[in-house]
Amino acid sequence: MKAIVHEGQPGFSGLKFAEISSPAVKPGTVKVRLKTAGLNHRDLFTLVRHKADAGPLVIGSDGAGIVEEIGEGVSGFQKGDEVVIIPSLGWRKKSAAPPEGFEILGLPDDGTFAEEIVVPAENLAPKPHHLSWEQAGVVMLGALTAYRALVTRAHVAAGQTVLIPGVGGGVATLLIQMAKALGAKVIVTSRSSDKREKALALGADRAIDSNGDWQEALPGEKVDVVIESVGAATFEKSLSLLKPGGIIVVFGASAGDVVPLNLRNFFYGQYTLIGSTMGSIEEAHECLRFMEEHRIAPVIDSVFPLREAEAALRKLERGEQFGKIALKIAD
Description:
The chain is of the alpha/beta class.
């Protein structure tokens, strides 16, 4: 089968479009013939984290396709079923934190940038009827991350105001739609005027320039919840807009891991700082039901053929996209 494989040197130099053996089905697993896959920033990190001595690795965490073969002991699926991949390995039930041994598909296990994949049966869910194949192939990692941050961790409720810094990526565009479905007011930030306009068209109530003075742009306005994934570049500004007693949820740090924090201001403000990482299989099914109920779909920025995965990854690295970048694997 054809696949995007990483081996040898770290970074893009180790990436290649290759012909490899089809994976074998084992008890408790299902083989899926993939139609589409989705890019995530995790894929860029994998190019650096995957070690040369670990052997070839098929990268990718998101995908959707058709059940091709069912392993011994598996029930609930039939050949020909349309499914999406849940990339959360070993995290079955909703919990305060992932269990020991939790991994995300695509490292260390082979991922979705291939014509076929074998995954545990518990890591499959029926493809939502309202999603196209491109949308289904990119949805799960970003949607699960957004859902856990908003619903499980922040408990966002109707009437609250949610701030989403750095809008443009797949998670942020899903956060907008989910927060609006929960009845919240949504404020976003971006350096790009084009991305701000697209966020407003998607449902955001306000969109401000990340490079400007946020308090000046929102005079007298404070937010109940911040969903942070940018990190050092925006953390202090995010905190400055938080209401006393407000919540800031952090699920990423794309612009730096270390931030200054005035502890006295923090405890006087009675703020709550919460970490969040993707989510469990249980939350994935909750998330898909929520998306079907509210007709939420990922925004597709662009679609590349599988063999052009490197070009797609370089576009992601440059941050040019609004929404998700998809790979088309089969018709």
